[in-house]
């Protein structure tokens, strides 16, 4: 079950990254990702695979850890992060 959730999260994140890359192809950008300590993005961050994949497109990934869901949603609302899980 955990593997299925991880795979779905990774697919969703890669789809968002590809969409971001298509929109900002001409210029380098930062992708600001918010995550929680117990989420599946911790594994993606630890491996560094997202950074490697997006570096080819000139996108730098910035990770921000949030203590809980309300704080992560507030980060999305105020624009301090672009994507959160």
- Helix content percent band: 40-55%
Coarse structural class: alpha/beta
The CATH topology: D-Maltodextrin-Binding Protein, domain 2
Radius of gyration: 13 Å
By DSSP, the count of extended strands is: 3
CATH superfamily: Periplasmic binding protein-like II
Low-pLDDT runs of 5+ residues are: none
The major beta sheet can be summarized as: 3 strands, parallel
CA-to-CA gap between the ends? Answer: 18 Å
Protein name: Sulfonate ABC transporter periplasmic sulfonate-binding protein
Keywords: Signal
Signal peptide: 1-28
Detailed description of the structure:
The structure is a single chain. The protein has 85 residues and is an alpha/beta fold. The protein has a single domain, classed as D-Maltodextrin-Binding Protein, domain 2 (3-Layer(aba) Sandwich), CATH 3.40.190. Helices cover 54% and strands 21% of the residues. The chain has four helices and three strands; from the N terminus they run αβααβαβ. The protein has helices spanning 2-23, 41-47, 49-55, 69-78, and strands at 29-36, 59-66, 83-84. A three-stranded parallel sheet has the order 2-1-3, sandwiched between helices. The chain is globular and about 35 Å long.
Short key terms for the protein model shown above:
85 residues; alpha/beta; D-Maltodextrin-Binding Protein, domain 2; three-stranded parallel sheet; 4 helices; 3 strands; 54% helix; 21% strand
């Amino acid at each position: 079950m955990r593997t299925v959730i991880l795979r779905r999260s990774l697919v969703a994140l890669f789809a968002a990254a590809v969409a971001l890359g298509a929109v900002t192809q001409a210029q380098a950008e930062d992708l600001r990702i918010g995550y929680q300590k117990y989420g599946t993005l911790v594994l993606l961050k630890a491996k560094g695979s997202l950074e490697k994949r997006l570096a080819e497109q000139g996108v730098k990934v910035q990770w921000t850890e949030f203590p809980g869901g309300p704080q992560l949603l507030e980060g999305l609302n105020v624009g301090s992060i672009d994507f959160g899980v």
